[in-house]
Design a protein that fits this description.
The chain is an alpha/beta fold and 151 residues long. It has a single domain, classed as Rossmann fold, CATH 3.40.50. It contains 6 helices and 6 strands; from the N terminus they run E-H-H-E-H-H-E-H-H-E-E-E. A 6-stranded mixed beta sheet has the order 3-2-1-4-5-6, sandwiched between helices. The longest helix is centred in the N-terminal third of the chain and has 15 residues. It is globular and about 35 Å long.
Amino acid sequence: MRKKKIYLDTSVISYLRQEDSPKEMQDTQEFWEILKKDEYDVYISEVVVNELSQCAEPKRTELLTLLSEIQYNDIAVENNLEIIVLADEIKKLNIVPPKSENDRRHIAAAVFSECDINITVLSNAADIIVWLSSYSLIGSSALSESSLSFS
């Protein structure tokens, strides 16, 4: 049986050090421990790395160091015409706010890579949102081993 493919957007990694949201930070840290076990194929795009690189120090270095603790597949976005076209199609569907180009690219990268799950943290909802096949919302919950049993 193949591992489930999980796409992480920048918010998941950022919440590893989100001091002003202790509950979500703890939930994300617990989830990170699951990812370190290498039970899932993790995907991130260059959009994630670019956004992390814009964080102020010392958070930038901390997050990039944490990212190096897990195995992941890197998705090139900028020169990938299929991902760019898909992001434009997502914009036409109006499912992501018009100004959220990076969010559309995250979704497009996850779909392009055929990820089973796209995980994001919506700061305005203070919840961790899990999407299956990048479009079907299955719920929001704290990420824990029990909430991530994808049998």
